[in-house]
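Moderator note: this is an archived Q&A kept for reference. The question asked for a predicted structure of one protein chain; the sequence and the answer are reproduced below.
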Amino acid sequence: MMKNDDQRGFDQLFEMYHKKIYFFCIKNGLNDEDSQEIVQEVFVKFWGSRKNLDPSKNIQSYLYTIAKNTMLDEFKRRIKQKAAEDYQLRLLQPENHTQNSVNYNELQEIIAETLRNLPEKRRLVFELSRYRGFSNKEIAIEMGISVKTVEAHLTLALQSFRTVFKRAEIIGITGLLYSVFCI
């Protein structure tokens, strides 16, 4: 029905799912205004792809997939924007490049040493999560372990990093470390 530009059918679909998609966005951390924009974008994308719809596929799943991907795109855009703003602010501040380089190299060595000291499975779980961006479920499937085991490995790995960072008195860059290892 959508392939034939059925506006009434589309309106019914919108009425049926727009609130669900809105609350899905809210649940995933967006505010009211951003959630409303995502909902609008989801249905614009849906309408734009209506000619390619497979009638045997679940429309609700398709809408949620569009919503998830649109939110991820928005989050990526925000991260890039924040990184650009931070970079511009750093350009305005005088820096001690030699000290920064020494600190960076020291931090890299501490991270590498901590990773080497983790048990093999814990290290692999951590690397898949933090370096390759796998979800806990994807890691569980990849390694043939439960999601709870993945969560336990990550918790223990993060505790190891926190302990090492405290011992090394790397307090000044706690925010950076938190964002890299704890998100």
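Archived answer notes: The CA atoms of residues 75 and 107 lie 27 Å apart.
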